[in-house]
Design brief:
The protein is α+β, with helices and mostly antiparallel strands and about 80 residues long. It has one domain. The chain has 2 helices and 6 strands; from the N terminus they run αββαββββ. Strands 3-4-5-6 form a 4-stranded antiparallel sheet, covered by helices on one side. The N terminus is likely disordered.
């Protein structure tokens, strides 16, 4: 039960971390590439922020991506 709660918390934090606020507007947009990777079955392995920029690491089998937010909402293939 604790493990499920922890996974849900990480997923929620990662999704929140990748949300980008448009200047002068309260509308929230989410990185579409991150959403696509999650739909394709990638798992969130880590979520963190560095210098105010949110990052999420996703993995599926031997394939991994690093997604970052704060203006440039892109995901880079790590391997």
């Amino acid at each position: 039960m604790i493990r499920i709660f922890a996974a849900a918390t990480v997923a929620l934090c990662a999704t929140s971390a990748m949300a980008q606020f448009q200047q002068g507007n309260t509308r929230t947009t989410v990185n579409p590439q991150l959403v696509r990777l999650l739909e394709e079955g990638y798992d969130i392995k880590a979520a963190f922020a560095e210098a105010g920029v949110p990052y999420v690491i996703l993995q599926k089998a031997t394939s991994a991506y690093l997604c970052r937010g704060a203006g440039a909402t892109v995901c880079e293939k790590l391997n």
